[in-house]
Amino acid sequence: MQKRMGEAVARVARKVNDTVENKTDSLDLANCKLMTFPVGIYKAMRTVTEGIHRISLANNELKSITSRFVTTFSQLRELNLAGNYLHRLPEEVTSLLHLQTINLSRNRFRRFPEPLANITTLETIDLEENEITEVPAEVLASMTSLRSLNLRENPVSPEARLLVQPLVPFELLLSPEKPTPKA
């Protein structure tokens, strides 16, 4: 167990070092068994955070994203948080003024993360495979840049579907309705 933990830590360190040394615009920490975003990364990356436009933290074990993470990587355009245990986003996510794409699929959201509505640059939101039942049509209708919202594999109620479709000017992806069994 300890050996695997050490390998995971070393892998994260390598990926962070690669990003810093090569001054790339992305940080890929997918599949690193992270339960939290390592605090040491803020210090290690302080010289390049402004240039980071893409971060993937997909397929980890994150239960939350901190406001420090969001404010440190304020230049993000793409954020991939798929495959974690997230159920909400910090209010500070609204400070991501350049964010265009966010992937929150395969998480534990029960409702649409409302802070996203205040990000005017957001074009694509992926919330596939969460536990969302309601869709805030008015909130979504106010998101002028939004092009696509994926809500497939969510238990969205039939009533919510009917209310939302005519209000939203973007592509709304929902799973096909399951026919109700006849008695």
Summarize the structure.
This protein is α/β, with parallel strands linked by helices and about 180 residues long. It has helices at about 1-20, 40-45, 65-70, 135-140, 160-165; strands spanning about 25-30, 55, 80, 100-105, 125, 150, 170-175.
Fraction of residues in helix? 10-25%
Strand content: 5-15%
Major sheet description: 7 strands, parallel
For this structure, what is the CATH class?
Alpha Beta
Mean pLDDT: 90
In total, the number of strands is 7
Question: What's the topology here?
Answer:
Elements: H1 2-22, E1 26-28, H2 40-44, E2 54-56, H3 67-72, E3 78-80, E4 101-103, E5 124-126, H4 137-141, E6 148-150, H5 158-164, E7 171-173
Question: How would you sum up this structure, described in words?
Answer:
This protein has 183 residues and is an alpha/beta fold. It has a single domain, classed as Ribonuclease Inhibitor (Leucine-rich repeat, LRR (right-handed beta-alpha superhelix), Alpha-Beta Horseshoe), CATH 3.80.10.10. It is 24% helix and 11% strand. The chain is built from 5 helices and 7 strands. The protein has helices spanning 2-22, 40-44, 67-72, 137-141, 158-164, and strands at residues 26-28, 54-56, 78-80, 101-103, 124-126, 148-150, 171-173. A 7-stranded parallel beta sheet has the order 1-2-3-4-5-6-7.
